Amino acid sequence: MKNSTKIDPYGFREYDARWIYEQDISIEGIEELGKGLGTQIKIHTNKENPRVVVGHDYRSYSEKIKSSLKKGLIFTGCYVEDIGLSLSPMVYFAQFNLNTDAVAMVTASHNENGWTGVKMGIKKGLTHAPEEMKELKEITLNQKFKKGNGNEKQIDDFQQIYKNDLINKNKITKKIKAVVACGNGTAGIFAPDILRGIGCEVIELDCNLDWTFPKYNPNPEDLEMLHEIAKAVKENEADIGFGFDGDGDRVGVIDEQGNEIFSDKIGLLIARNLSEKHNGAKFIVDVKSTGLYSTDKILAKNNCNTLYWKTGHSHIKRKVNIENALAGFEKSGHFFFNEPLGYGYDDGINSAIQVCHLLDNQNKKMSEITNELPNTFQTPTMAPFCKDEEKYNIVDDLVKEIKQIKNNKTLIDGQEIKDILTVNGVRFSFDDGSWGLIRASSNKPSLVIVTESPTSDERKKRIFDFIDNLLQKTGKIGEYDQKI
Which CATH class is domain 261-351+363-371? Predict the structure, then answer.
């Protein structure tokens, strides 16, 4: 490794790679990453010259990073097909449309300026999961590179092919007035055109590309962004507001009154709408999502089944694929639609389109449709600090402790624990549908805590107090990022 080569090992995350550019990874480090990825693709495809589709987001340094990544891929023998400025879902789509062997998208998604990263995948529609990331880290840091003769070519006008694919399949009849907010991120040159193309009247909010992100980060979980959308919805008397993240794979939704609808509830509304046409469909949701999926009368009437699975876009994507589910919904706003609605990967614009279909199918306002869901009291996602090297062991100990509490029939707010789910930390639920979740964060030194109750706000708080009490007793928990 050259002296100037710098790669912080912690940048290899659970399902993608992210670093602060130059501080944690140098341009030579990016080239090494390209060599590592190219080697990995060759191992898994067993091809001398696998074809890799590559794109980049609109940050000042993303094109430079992409050039270096491509250099590494070409060194190993990959044939690179560069589709230029892209959204992550456009790169995923290109793998199907161009029938390539792998994908590499240069993006740090909604992270602040200064961050860079790569989302990558080999099997169509899927991105790297922890095993692949571990293997990639091992190959890259130990420089176990294969050498070959690669090349590259530019694919022109691919943006239009991606736009047309979504527009042609999704025309609507009702004139829906939509605020489309992109926080000056890459989605700005895609989302307005596509939503107009299917038949919406579009009001653009911060859709001009500006890599300095002058107002706020393009992140649909960011309250500042959501408040701006709500204001624009009310001022323009719009039917709906959509907020897209930096690389276009997530969406946030605001109703016509300016209220944010949590993504897990949006997912349930879409699932209900889809279940009418797709009897017996299967849906996948992450463990942070509302308990309403498992008790929903409309899904039950249409013989639909919902599985709760590990949080993280790669995990849900894979589960949708393995179970051949119709769709998957993650509380953070990643939604996945399988054939015939999509190709299984997360596309924020396709998610917004499914919300438009929901409005198109019902002669009701968005708030009226949302109000048909039973009311629940839900905490935001809370993240108390916990060291990376300690968090998983602490969660393992808490799983044992909660199982013990269940076996002993110890009451929490007057209720016994009925079910325990341990696919990702521990989610324990009660007879009335209330539940609590403790898991380790996949991408930062913290735990993740969520509680929900359909019964009362008080019960939601008491379940949180019970969890917080368990955490404090460990003596290894720091400050919360937010707390009820």
Answer: alpha beta
